[in-house]
């Protein structure tokens, strides 16, 4: 089956679509993660950083970064003939956070990418998903030269609930990113089952 078409003689299949958000601070690797697994050329809304934005764009730790996402990144993965996953990378800078509410509508779950050199940059994303009861995992993007910490130390630093998965990953690696996305889906399924059980008891 080619996406959007069916084999000769078979009726077209209308796929079920799932949405996962990829959030986190500025320069943490969201655009890279979406691009690592998308089967299509990702839609990117990046613009160059300017002198006018210097007072509000903190590039500490990511001095080599020259562009920023101003709306979203978008990628797609066809898991089965009848199941398609859409990835939406959120803008990382505070002045673009108004986009988050629209992007999160109908999301199955989220990945909060973290950089151990700037853990505080993902507090806002963690808080956002906790407040809206959207299941999420934390993906610690293991940058070269960044200090490595045990998962439990990252969990304590971010004040995460015990049931929130913390996964080490490389946002450039397809297999590594796939493992994180599987983690999101599994966590979302557990989260949904627990909520249904709470409602019925």
From TrEMBL:
It comes from the Bacteria. It comes from Streptomyces galbus. It holds the Pfam family ATP_bind_1. The keyword Signal does not apply. Belongs to the GPN-loop GTPase family. InterPro entries: Gliding_Motility_GTPase (IPR052705), Gpn (IPR004130), P-loop_NTPase (IPR027417). Gene3D superfamilies: P-loop containing nucleotide triphosphate hydrolases. Keywords: ATP-binding, GTP-binding, Hydrolase, Nucleotide-binding. This is ATP-binding protein. The keyword RNA-binding does not apply. GO terms for molecular function: ATP binding.
């Amino acid at each position: 089956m080619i996406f959007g078409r069916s084999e000769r003689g078979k009726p077209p299949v209308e796929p079920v679509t799932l949405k996962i958000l990829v959030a986190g601070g500025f320069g943490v690797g969201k655009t890279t993660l979406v691009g690592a697994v998308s089967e299509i050329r990702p839609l990117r809304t990046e613009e160059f950083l300017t002198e006018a934005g210097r007072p509000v764009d903190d590039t500490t730790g990511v001095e080599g970064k020259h562009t920023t996402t101003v709306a979203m990144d978008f990628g797609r993965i066809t898991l089965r003939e009848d199941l398609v996953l859409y990835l939406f990378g959120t803008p990382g800078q505070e002045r673009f956070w108004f986009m988050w509410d629209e992007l999160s509508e109908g999301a199955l779950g989220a990945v909060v990418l973290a950089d151990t050199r700037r853990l505080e940059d993902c507090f806002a994303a963690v808080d956002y998903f906790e407040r809206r009861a959207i299941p999420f995992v934390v993906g610690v993007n293991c940058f070269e030269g960044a200090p490595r910490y045990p998962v439990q130390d990252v969990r304590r630093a971010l004040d995460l609930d015990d049931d929130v998965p913390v996964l080490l990953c490389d946002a450039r690696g397809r297999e590594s990113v796939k493992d994180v996305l599987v983690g999101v889906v599994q966590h979302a399924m557990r989260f949904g089952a627990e909520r249904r059980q709470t409602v019925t008891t």
